[in-house]
Design goal:
Distance between the termini: 64 Å
Helix content: 25-40%
Strand order of the largest sheet: 14-15-16-13-12-18-19
Mean pLDDT: 96
CATH class of the largest domain: Alpha Beta
CATH superfamily of the largest domain: Aldehyde Dehydrogenase, Chain A, domain 1
CATH topology of the largest domain: Aldehyde Dehydrogenase, Chain A, domain 1
Shape: globular
Number of strands: 22
Number of domains: 2
Bound molecules: NADP nicotinamide-adenine-dinucleotide phosphate
Length: 498
């Protein structure tokens, strides 16, 4: 098959030890906006293929880690070029496989290209630091070295960006990689892997193994040849995985759930704050780890905010993301859709007041997809499940509070700590908020969503285990650090040893 037809194919092969293979089983890949459409068939690998991929990565490691970092970076720059060239194929695949709107999918590809560019540049940046030694005539420094074989396990909600921002730093740091995408997004996973592979990676340096979490994923975490695991996904899976990684002595990074608050203070620009809240709550169908799922509003502006939010939510057109007039797509699959519909019942039962949405939208073709109306519940309080648990769907809980301190307490009153935002014109309150809010990413007068490639990404509390991702933190995670002392006289007496 020519490279072009291999890119345009919607079937998915695994890539192990430099070969594209069909795998032991094939599964249909279904469009969540129209379940009558089978996009293509995907290889579904098992433990045997996972082991083969790990062994291939181990064989490829010595040569790859010896490859000069600038040369590794140059291969990533070629991957940047390919991702730019294939951007529309990637975006279309994401729409059909994950349900994003085309606009959102194009944005995600752009974000991935930037993350890839940043990491390609890491091939020419410092890998350590020279420091003065207390011992005379001693050259002392520390240096980063690759971990070895690493596993990358990703969710379906950013099926291009998350694999890209993990694979790129792993490779430029000199590791060899086994990548498992989420089972519902194998096609975008394959297209990402293909940009790296076609850029000229040597055989076995990047292996792509679509397959189940309990089999392929479990092997990628438990196998003792693997020295590091980078995971993004749910708390339920991530915490088990972190324990397993610790038991098998590997470095581990888990980025997990969120329950992100938008705080609207009395002096906020209400129009901007409401726009940002709608964007954060319903963009990507609420299926972002940084989605706004709670909006905490000062009581003096509460009625106006609720009215505007309800009107804004009702105006969002729901449907197949390939239709350019559509602003919100479906949930990714039946399981996620059922979770969303269940939480609507939970919110009703807990006494929240429905002001927009609350069910499945009606309209031609919508009956074949996993659609929910953009839903807003008002009069919520922090004792409700809808304000505490991650839904991962288009449901927004509005919580009234009296003043800044009550808003901050509500914002911090959850187990998660990924992102948060405050809308205010008061510099002092904005600064107090950024100081005291318990999250890894905080915005002032901006939506809760988003993150730039040169800044760290990730959360505190139950959201995150291990080091942050992105920025220079990406390469740091995928590195061991070694302290080196060189007595360059080879004769000096050692003094001041503690
Ligand atoms: P998930 O169910 O936890 O799955 C994530 C990945 O783990 C998938 O590839 C999955 O494979 C795999 N997996 C499942 N069981 C495994 C096991 N026993 N061992 C190893 N791997 C296993 O999460 P999801 O539903 O795909 O994603 C949604 C979640 O991701 C949400 O909670 C969201 O907040 C979180 N998320 C967090 C961030 C962040 O940066 N904090 C970013 C994006 C998403 P299968 O698909 O085959 O089950």
């Amino acid at each position: 098959m020519s490279t072009q037809s291999a890119i345009e194919s919607t079937d998915v092969l695994a890539h192990i030890d430099g070969e594209w293979i069909a795998g032991p089983e094939q599964k249909p890949n279904i469009n969540p906006a129209d379940t009558r459409e089978i996009i293509g068939m995907s290889a579904h690998c098992g433990r045997k293929e996972a082991v083969a991929a790990i062994e291939a990565a181990a064989r490829a490691l010595p040569a790859w880690r010896e490859t000069p970092a600038p040369k590794r970076g140059n291969i990533l720059f070629e991957a940047v070029r390919l991702m730019k060239e294939r951007a529309e194929v990637l975006a279309m695949a994401m729409c059909r496989e994950e349900g994003k709107t085309l606009h959102e999918a194009r944005g995600e590809v752009q974000k991935s290209i930037i993350a890839l560019e940043f990491n390609a540049g890491e091939g020419r940046r410092p890998t350590g630091q020279v420091v003065p030694s207390e011992m005379g005539r001693t050259f002392a420094y520390h240096v980063r070295q690759p971990l070895g074989v690493v596993s990358i396990i990703t969710p379906w909600n950013f099926p291009v960006a998350i694999p890209t921002w993990k694979i790129a730093p792993a490779l430029v740091a000199g590791n060899t990689v086994v990548f498992k995408p989420a089972s519902v997004t194998p096609l975008t996973g394959r297209l990402v892997a293909q940009c790296f592979i076609d850029a000229g990676l040597p055989r076995g340096v990047l292996n792509f193994v679509p397959g189940g979490g309990g089999t392929v994923g479990d092997e990628l975490v438990g196998n003792r040849t693997v020295r590091g695991v980078s995971f993004t996904g749910s708390n339920e899976i991530g915490m088990g995985l972190a324990r397993q990684a610790l038991e098998t002595r590997k470095k581990c990074q888990c980025e997990m759930g969120g329950k992100n608050p938008m705080v609207i203070l009395a002096d906020a620009d209400i129009e901007l704050a409401v726009d940002a809240t709608l964007q954060g709550a319903f963009g990507s169908t609420g299926q972002r780890c940084t989605a706004t799922s709670r909006v905490i509003v000062d009581r003096s502006v509460y009625a106006e905010v609720v009215e505007r939010l309800a009107a804004g939510a009702k105006a969002i057109k729901v449907g197949n993301g390939l239709d350019p007039t559509v602003k919100m797509g479906p949930s990714v699959d039946k399981g996620q859709h059922n979770t969303v519909l269940d939480y609507i019942q939970v919110a009703h039962a807990d006494g929240a007041k429905l002001v927009a949405g609350g069910g499945r939208p009606q309209g031609e073709g919508l009956e074949h997809g996993f659609f929910t109306e953009p839903t807003v519940f008002a009069d919520c309080h922090m004792g409700m499940r809808i304000t505490q648990e991650e839904v991962f769907g288009p449901i927004l809980a509005v919580v009234p509070v009296d003043g800044f301190d009550a808003a901050l307490e509500a914002a911090n009153g959850v187990a998660f700590g990924l992102s948060a935002s405050v809308y205010t014109r008061d510099l002092v309150l904005a600064q107090r908020f950024t100081d005291a809010i318990e999250v890894g990413i905080v915005h002032v007068n901006n939506p809760t969503v988003g993150g730039e490639a040169q800044l760290p990404f990730g959360g505190m509390k139950e959201t995150g285990v291990g080091q942050r991702e992105m920025g220079t933190f990406g390469v740091d995670f995928f590195s061991e650090v070694k302290a080196v002392y060189v007595d360059y006289t080879a004769a000096a007496r050692r003094t001041n040893i503690y």
